[in-house]
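chain below, 148 aa
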Amino acid sequence: MDEKESLVSGKKTALPKDTFYVGDLVGLRAVDETGAFVGTVMNVLMTKQQCLEIAVGKTAEELAELERVRREALAETEAHMREFDRKLKENPGAVPNAAKARKAERRKFDRSPKIRTFLVPFVGAYVGDVEPENGVLHLKNVNGLMEI
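prediction:
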């Protein structure tokens, strides 16, 4: 089955050993060498060197709830900014630098939850066993990465 067929059928093509689909990595519980929970894989950054973005101390369920809250906060912020823009248009000379004022207003009003994350290069020096079937990703030598 070629790549096009697998996309149409919805079936995943078998991958070589130690190769994973991004969707199989996102949501995995990240644990350190002692088995202690570190966080959850939130994203895979597809750069020259793939990196896992780990949400520190957050479970997949907590991340889902934070995403729901973030979307609500974003909708409130956008409504507030539309009103702010309307007022700027009504009185264009009231603010000397509208772009700067708009940026400051957005920052002041933004109520979206902040999530502490850190990046882990997806290489053997930092990533041990990956067990999508068990929902676990084992990290190595991660203490220094968490503090950067």
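The chain has two domains: 26-58+115-143, 64-109. The helical segments are 3-9, 22-25, 60-90, 98-109, 143-146.
thats it, cya
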